[in-house]
UniProtKB/TrEMBL annotation:
GO terms for biological process: vacuolar acidification. The keyword Acetylation does not apply. The keyword Membrane applies. InterPro entries: V-ATPase_116kDa_su, V-type_ATPase_116kDa_su_euka. This is V-type proton ATPase subunit a. Signal peptide: none annotated. It is found in: Membrane. PANTHER family: V-TYPE PROTON ATPASE SUBUNIT A1, VACUOLAR PROTON ATPASES. Belongs to the V-ATPase 116 kDa subunit family. Keywords: Coiled coil, Hydrogen ion transport, Ion transport, Membrane, Transmembrane, Transmembrane helix, Transport. Essential component of the vacuolar proton pump (V-ATPase), a multimeric enzyme that catalyzes the translocation of protons across the membranes. Required for assembly and activity of the V-ATPase. It comes from the Eukaryota. It comes from Raphanus sativus. GO terms for cellular component: vacuolar proton-transporting V-type ATPase, V0 domain.
Amino acid sequence: MDDFLDKLPQMDLMRSEKMTLVQLIIPVESAHRCVTYLGELGLLQFRDLNADKSPFQRTFANQVKRCGEMSRKLRFFKDQIDKAGLRCSPRHELEPDIELGDLERQLADHEHEVLEMNSNSEKLRQTYNELLEFKIVLQKANGFLASSNAHATGDETELHEGTYSNNGFIETSSLLEQEMRPEPLNQSGLRFISGIINKDKLLRFERMLFRATRGNMLFNQTPSDEEIMDPSTSEMVEKIVFVVFFSGEQARTKILKICEAFSANCYPVPEDTTKQRQLTREVLSRLSDLEATLHAGTRHRNDALNAVGYRLTKWITTVRREKAVYDTLNMLNFDVTKKCLVGEGWCPTFAKTQIHEVLQRATFDSNSQVGVIFHVMQAVESPPTYFRTNKLTNAFQEIIDAYGVARYQEANPAVYSVVTYPFLFAVMFGDWGHGLCLLLGALYLLARERKLSSQKLGSFMEMLFGGRYVIFLMALFSIYCGLIYNEFFSVPFHIFGGSAYKCRDTTCSDAYTVGLVKYRDPYPFGVDPSWRGSRSELPYLNSLKMKMSILLGIAQMNLGLILSFFNARFFGSSLDIRYQFIPQMIFLNSLFGYLSLLIIIKWCTGSQADLYHVMIYMFLSPTEELGENELFWGQRPLQILLLLMAFIAVPWMLFPKPFALRKIHMERFQGRTYGVLGTSEVDLDVEPDSARGGHQEEEFNFSEIFVHQLIHSIEFVLGSVSNTASYLRLWALSLAHSELSTVFYEKVLLLAWGYENILIRLIGLVVFAFATAFILLMMETLSAFLHALRLHWVEFMGKFFHGDGYKFKPFSFALISDDDE
């Protein structure tokens, strides 16, 4: 048997790749190029030999800091380009690789230039906004002042408000500059302050003015006709022009402080109409000049950003790679005396030749006089787990890894999940109409695979695209199971010939509940369409799907136990084979394997035996005659034998293994044998097939081993019952899916189609389509997906899978993501 198993061809995904711990001794002058070439190859996972040091204590901390600063500048450029709304596609012509120092200088120059232009633009925009507000205030306040002059006395004086404290007045200055300086104020009479404020602050501003002046003021307001850009947020803000009439110097002081607190800008407005017109012309002239200056500055800034944007993608890639290289160099030990770097890492055994060739090429390209020393080390810790997957198997491997990464060289459940996972999904989802809808969605994702893979997708769409081959297989198996169930949106079809049943006489021509008799061979494939609508439809389908669920469950659990045998044999643990695998197989198949045998015999013979009665009285009255429930000769003595075997298997699982481990431990330390204890129960953290655990002398705790075995045995015994019952979810979800489809078809579509009104028919069709799409194709798909996930993670993988390994994460430029910055 062992010779036969050894001659079987090895499966690629059955066990992870063999890994080798290697050591690199790299001269300083060629270290950067060596690590760069290894990053391009992507087959070496470096170990951190400086884990006890902080990031600032490492050799290349300054280089990492420089790369981080350059990344910040590149993100700044990207934000500026996005903010400006530019679309800079990278140039495709070949550009020479730029040195890190030159790139750093270029980025600093570009950043200084852009920051200076942003500062100038912000100042110009602020001045432009002030002049624009002044223009709006001049236009809107004129109406208020005209109304005030019509009712005011001749003693009213004009109040000039500004921000300048210099009272000197130059006759040759422009009228705008004159108006921005306050004139000596008249200490009596009615005065006013005009300005502009954000609309959202207006109510609080007016309330505060009323309280501060105790109502001794007149507040006029009007909305501005145009929105004004806020320089800090670049958003358009709606503002309100106001004019406050008051009397007295004390009121003036209070109003100015309130305006300052609410960020209201005050502008002087002359009462003289001639001065107003002259001031407006000066403001419009300066606005025109500033607008031209702003447009010229914006064009110059966009040209500078475009020049950066053409090379931004290449620069980002260069900086990311350099930072990754220096982060990796920081994981190496720096030997000052020998002027070399010492590194360790894991690589697949098949990649040793490739890595050696890459190191030789790096030594030659760097003109180093000393080559890189590359040699294999003896491993002390468990190697990482690495599976070589393709586009089809990668999604299934990710599903398994979501539960736990396989232990090094442990049997990989993903090999079998490629078939069993979509099949169990289809057992619950079986409807070939719904399967065709899933297939169309999967084919769309596959047809646009090249385009979608190059785009940045949302989280939901990225998940769907990553599982496109899983959806494709689920759709195919759903069509297959739907043909077996003979359901197309819950409607049966005579696809594979006529029904095996017909009416006994003419009285049942319009009924499907009574009078059907079998008159020829059974329907060639799947469920006979005549069962649809019959009185015994539900009992028949329930019986079929429930028994089928048990058969599938027992088959998959047996597969899990068989894989545990191959695991134990691969790791050389004979104790696990003798005291776990054999009694577990006996216990599971003595009870539930026997139940599966009875189901198959009942199907083949057409017996009317009650399997519930057989299994219950197998325990309660094993010696009692079976009577009409006997399915074959010798069934009663076989049941007694299977029951005794099941009872014997429980102590077989519990007692021998802890005592055998204790005996082996005693022999090891008494000098009688020096063999390695090859079992995973002694040291769960050490790989069972290596001698690495022998260096760590740990105290053998017999009570702990015994309790662990007791828990494991009880868990398996109880789990055999609960796991078998858990597979009945296949029956339950399949029944729920079928009944929901029937309800939507009969109570929505057929009911609406019974009316002659075209509008009612259209409404019924729309409701049926939405119910099918959102409930049956989305919610039911998710439900069946999760239940199939549970059956694989718990019922199947729990029989053999430890899942306490860690992934192989090589240093590779292709794996660098945006988050690694």
